[in-house]
């Protein structure tokens, strides 16, 4: 009788003789999960900065004095996006780990900027620091969008992945505002240090991204042709108008809430460069209401991202872009007719809700109509353009002292005219025509009216 060789039991033995259990698996975090973690930390840091600045010089000087400084730095913020799109972007896309490196640098710079703000809360140097933070945030958005297609398993999951990032950012940002608000009761400096620590942790987590190249080669002819299809071209223009409305509403409400008629001067600096003010209770309660409006924007974006998966099942996803622009038009018209705080807050929420569902619709259109395009490179280019539209539209209410009803009327005009012309463009495509972009059609319509 042959003697059976004794086999060690699973989970037994020591050192080299240890046999792992059969059910034991090595848990590995997916690259996209690592991006979700970094994105959540970036959202938390952004929320901490917003809370810290709510009671600082940045939001407590008179609107007239703020306009000049906001206009200056909005204009300056154009340059980084132009350089990113035309020169830096293509180089970074071809570098192994280029976008990963950029996100890491952005998170580290955000931490440094927050630390520098600690000593400048009552100084005019707070303005350039705040706008450097804004530019870094927008640059991060572009880099994140370029990186997503490289980190997911299938391009068919792109919309769901971006929705997950949006939901995560909304929830974590809201949650981070609670400890940030508690710290602000002690000192705004404590909140800034809290935010700097969060950005530093985000930078450390970004180190764990895999070194993946977004686009190894120059765009092929097929990719260029697909991205120049009429359906994609007019969708880009429609989404540009959506982003423009978001930027316009943000800055218009910032100055509309800061009603100078309700401002009480509480101090000036020694050189007379700025005047600090305090807003009284009333239908427009300055900084407090604008802070609530920013929170409403986050709520609107969160709801839009939560509905992304269900809305993505629509047969004609293009109609969702029409709906997004129509929502902006209706919200703008309602606010123009009433011009009260409640409808202004609702406007902020609805415009950002429309932007969320419009973004999802746009990505679905690019997926469907440009299957052979490198989506990382394409989305980086498109989102850079959208951020430029956000800045360009935001300059208008800063440059011009628009009455509330006029500004809200402009929002309604952007929404309704964009929805109409985009729908006409879709009809032309259905009939076999070659429609121009939405922006080009708007230009033609206005030139005819003259």
Question: Could you explain the architecture of this structure?
Answer:
This protein folds into two domains: 28-214, Growth Hormone, Chain: A (Up-down Bundle), CATH 1.20.1250; 221-266 and 282-450, MFS general substrate transporter like domains (Growth Hormone, Chain: A, Up-down Bundle). Helix content is 72%, strand content 2%. It is built from 16 helices and two strands. The protein has a two-stranded antiparallel sheet with strand order 1-2. α5 packs antiparallel against α14 (375-399) and α12 runs antiparallel to α13. The protein is globular. Mean pLDDT is 76; it is low at 1-5 and 279-285.
Separation of the first and last Cα atoms: 106 Å
Helix segment count? 16
Assembly type: single chain
Question: What's the domain count?
Answer: 2
Overall geometry comes to globular
Low-confidence stretches: 1-5, 279-285
The ordered H/E elements are HHHHHHHHHEEHHHHHHH
> So, the CATH homologous superfamily of the largest domain?
MFS general substrate transporter like domains
Task: Tell me which CATH architecture of the largest domain applies here.
Answer: Up-down Bundle
Topology:
Layout: H1 31-53, H2 63-76, H3 78-94, H4 98-118, H5 126-151, H6 158-186, H7 188-206, H8 221-227, H9 230-257, E1 263-268, E2 275-279, H10 286-306, H11 308-311, H12 318-338, H13 341-369, H14 375-399, H15 404-430, H16 438-449
Antiparallel strand pairs: 1-2
Helix pairs in contact: 1-5, 1-6, 1-7, 2-14, 3-14, 4-5, 4-7, 5-14, 6-7, 6-10, 6-13, 9-10, 9-12, 9-13, 9-14, 9-15, 10-13, 12-13, 12-15, 15-16
